[in-house]
Design goal:
The longest helix is centred in the first third of the chain and has 20 residues. The chain has 3 domains: 64 residues, OB fold (Dihydrolipoamide Acetyltransferase, E2P) (Beta Barrel); 189 residues, Rossmann fold; 143 residues, OB fold (Dihydrolipoamide Acetyltransferase, E2P), CATH 2.40.50.1070. With 448 residues, it is of the alpha/beta class. The chain has 10 helices and 22 strands.
Length: 448
């Protein structure tokens, strides 16, 4: 088997990165846009020592679980790897991804529950981050998602997984940026003004916060006028911010953000609590599915009578705030000071007085205190927890750890470590937060 070979294969399984898996003479081949039980004609795009990669040229015999994508850009965009698969079957495949991670990485035999479906499978994505560029010849501004395994932008005019207002705002920016002499970013030359457009829309009231990420360190007059035009054109926009990112990096947002017009947040409502979400605030992109997770965690905590709870890696203390009325005391710890400031506003507006906020790294905080908590809620980033953080969590928790994770692989790794320390993984509950992608959120309940 070599590059550019064309073969006919049957897809046997689904990988944790959203590709079909076939075998050719005993070697694994990862196939894009392929579903288990498909018979497809493929073209080998890359051959490594232990596996090969391929793209689908033709579906010869479709799986009964195939369906027509509702987005015409599905094959080229790369954002919705599973949209051509029936949604109910997507959930089964995601369960398999979690089970494989637990078995292979974690050596965990706790049964994985069936995933909780997203309440919405279209228009569910309430945060978009579009890279922006400019065509070489015509100078046309383009914005969209990167093609898979590339930095080539797919110019997206309509995306059915996000609110329509986001498409309208992006189209206005595309059409009007040249009128204000705002140029698109050239990644190779590191030139141009506008690197990304980030929109945070509210599922609660439909309002939007727009952030223009610029390749610069200060506001200039034409940018100011452009931001004003965006703000005044759309009634749904509550604020336009500028984020400064002049570094040669793949990180989208720089450290500094300035609000030029309106307010620097949108409001979101979950479990009757109102949250303020800024340009750089971590908050789930699918609020309705997130609400299912918060309710699940809250119900688990309510099984205990007036517990003290540590809300670690807290962000804007979403979990801490959501569970505050079933806990005697909540301590929310988050190293991002801006998130803690947003959380303080939310506490005041929701009248919550049993929650303390600490702008500190979780591990450092735990090392600095002697108190123990009845329950700890861990919601770390995709990389999971360090062993040191897990050790400190164990040392400071009496009864239960609730581990919320967006990465089955790092969750499995951390559950293995906790199991080796004598913990018992009582349950693993997946939630579909990112419909039509291979990503799956999980909540694991761990007891001592």
């Amino acid at each position: 088997m070599k590059q550019n070979d064309e073969l006919t294969v049957k897809i046997e399984k689904f990988s944790n990165l959203g590709t079909g898996i076939a075998k050719v003479e005993g070697q694994i081949v990862f196939v894009e846009n392929a579903c288990p039980e498909d018979v497809v004609k493929i073209k080998i795009t890359k051959v490594n020592k232990n596996y090969a990669s391929a793209k689908t040229l033709e579906v010869i015999t479709p799986s009964p679980n195939r369906t027509e994508p509702f987005c015409p850009m599905q094959k080229v965009c790369g954002a919705c790897q599973m949209q051509f698969i029936d949604y109910d079957y997507q959930l089964k495949l995601k369960k398999q991804i979690v089970e494989d991670a637990m078995r292979i990485i974690g050596h965990i035999d706790t049964p994985v529950n069936d995933p909780i479906a997203s309440p919405e499978i279209k228009n569910y994505r309430h945060k978009i981050q579009y890279p922006v560029s400019q065509t070489k010849n015509s100078g046309r501004i383009i914005a969209g998602y990167f093609k898979p395994q590339s930095h080539e932008i797919v110019n997206i005019k309509y995306c059915p997984i996000q609110p329509e207002i986001c498409d309208e705002i992006i189209e206005f920016i595309r059409e009007n940026a040249p009128k204000f002499n705002i140029t698109g970013f050239n990644e190779k030359k590191h030139t141009g003004d506008l690197r990304h457009v980030v929109i945070r829309s509210s599922a609660y009231n439909g309002k939007c916060l727009v952030t223009l990420v610029i390749n610069g360190t200060k506001i200039f007059d034409r940018l100011n006028k452009f931001a004003k035009a965006i703000f005044e054109t759309f009634e749904n926009i509550v604020g336009v911010c500028i984020n400064f990112n002049s570094k040669k990096t793949n990180v989208i947002l720089g450290q500094n953000t300035e609000c030029l017009y309106g307010q620097n947040f949108v409001e979101e409502k979950l479990l009757d609590k109102t949250f303020k979400i800024g340009a750089d605030t971590f908050f789930q992109i699918n609020p309705r599915s997130a609400e299912n997770i918060f309710k699940y965690v809250k119900d688990e905590i309510s099984k205990h009578k007036n517990p003290t709870v540590l809300d670690a890696y807290a962000g804007i203390a979403t979990f801490g705030i959501a569970i505050s009325d079933v806990a005697e005391k909540v301590i929310s710890v988050e190293e991002n000071k801006a998130s803690i400031e947003k959380a303080q506003e939310v506490l005041r507006e929701n009248g919550i007085n049993n929650l303390e906020l600490y702008a500190q790294d979780t591990t450092k905080y735990l090392k600095s205190v002697k108190r123990k908590f009845d329950i700890t809620v861990l919601d770390p980033p995709r990389k999971g927890c360090t062993q040191e953080a897990l050790d400190e969590t164990l040392a400071h928790t009496k009864e239960k750890i609730i581990y919320v994770s967006c990465n089955p692989a790092t969750l499995a790794r951390d559950l293995k470590y906790l199991s080796e320390k004598g913990c018992t993984v009582k349950s693993i509950q997946p939630f579909d937060m990112f419909c039509h992608t291979y990503h799956i959120e999980n909540v694991a309940i761990i007891s001592f």
